[in-house]
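Late entry, evening session. Most of the bench is empty. Finally got around to the prediction I had been postponing all week. Sequence below, unchanged from the version circulated by S.P.
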Amino acid sequence: DARFVADIYKAVDRKDLKYEEYKRITPKYNSYVRYAMFKELLFQWPYHEFIIDKVVNETIDIYEYLKKPEVLGADKVKLSVYQSLYRTSEDSGPMKALERAAKAGAYTVIICEIKARLDEIANFKWARRLKEAGAHVFYSMMKRKIHTKVTVSKLEIKQEGLLSKSDFSPEQWEKMIKLGLIETVNAGTDEAVCTKLLDTKLLPEGFRPPKEMKSMLPAEIVANLALSDEQNAKLCSSDICLKITHVGTGNIRESSAKAFEDINIFSSIPSLGRECIHMFNSLLARMLPNEPEGEMWFGNHLKEHLREKIMGEIAKGNDGYICLKVNQLEDDEMIDLLYQASQAGVKVDLFVRGFDIIRTANLEPLSLTNANIGAKGLVSDTSRIISNEQAISIWGRLTDIGIIDENNLVSCDYLAKRNQLFSLLCSELGRDKAEQIMDKVLDEAFRMREFSENIRLYRVIDRHLEHSRIYIFGKGEDADVILGSADIMKRNLRKRQEANRVIKDKGTKKEIQEIIDIYKNKPAHMEAMTANERYYLMDVDQTGKTAQEQLEIRHHINRDDGYANLWMLDYFLGTDNSVNVLNELKSQLPVESFIGDDISISDETIEVLKHSRYSGQPGFNEMLDSLIKIRLQRWE
């Protein structure tokens, strides 16, 4: 157990040896539940604040508010909370929220893994404490470890009854189902419940929209459905079944959210909530879950899904594409399929943080003339073979005589030119060094070309541990994007219960693809594996910034709550210049525009900046463009 190293880091008071604290984004939503009802919320740790406990606590607040006799009454409201627990901490916000839910009378279910290495004690303590609070606690199955990261809050409200299909046109009914605005009670019936809290009276005062509205239903949805006032009123007064589902890649532990990179998504899609609750019910019955809704890939079906998707890309040939971002890659069958995909012409990008057993024919890093890279490509496992200058010179020669092709692979006619190349290397370096280069690098690269010509393998070494698992099959909007808890390992595909979500929301899918694009652009601190099974640093996107640095600014610029962190002023303007701009803003904007380290990006804020006397400062226009983007993205 090496966790004591973190205590040493905290104990040493040397700011010059430590990273600056992240300016983590805490969205200024007046209600996470309200936002999640109409828009999926994607949070990437450590750039965003840890909010799982806040979402659960908010559903409890709504539940307790609705139970009041003067609102609806206890007999009209039911709350169910489901949580899978793999790792947690002894002072855990989400666990305290679950304890509060159980004490408040909510049906609370926890599936606890008792074999989470180094966290067994914390898990047992919380299991006992939650049982005492009234929660239903179940432990993991024999020979199948619970590794899922899933939370579901289900709020059921009785009002004036079910919706009837006869009150709407067939087109409206189908659209409402497609939008997830309603869900039918039983398949094929003409009755449904609403899946959103559309009436502002159903939310406590602090959670309501800033402007008083009859309904929270976004105007564009109303227009799209062509609802009459009477139909809108029926939606607001019908029975409700709201499910807020969280599926992520990270553990339910605040300390991990500060040290690990993970992605977590909150959604109110009815079918997603149903399928996750089905998973919990199946595991409680000591059965493995099916996937009736097609929203999830569970561990017992994961291997067949991966096989099917890879074979689908193989069928596309040169038009196929596969991208996997995982912690480990060591399942033999999946690796064989990836080799088949490469041989079929499918481009395969792999981002593997830890160990892997796949091989690549890639020689790209050796082509870079960076002083820190060139020579490293031509060294043995024990010593440097040649100098950096010699390596760069020889690489040029290899390219000139056609040994290395335009894709940085050993050319197909390598064997025909091998003797010529060997003579050239002998004359310049001597026989011993020439033999090492031929054997350690070029011969191996040629042997691997047959299997992995189209495979590229990368690894990010940076401030935070890369922990998210993402699978992408295909390109663009038509790609299948899957996010969840499973690595491509024998234990994950055979011995663990995993939960991976199929991303169907276009906005969420695009955001995940944009995150992966940052890694694909080969930022600083990224290593690539070459054919001699060694990793070499890449830095070819010209920004000089690591993927994690680029992700940090990306999330700040893409906020949709209408606020920006004051850190952005420092980022674009530098510390000295940002102070002047900040003082100018404070002198012309009302005090309520500033909340902690955040500033409201209102029309007034933009106008002040457009007429600022500091507009000529370097980076000012880029900052203004970013803030205008935040203003335009604000979701009311």
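Two things to note before I forget:
The mean pLDDT is 87.
The two ends are 47 Å apart (CA to CA).
Will write this up properly tomorrow.
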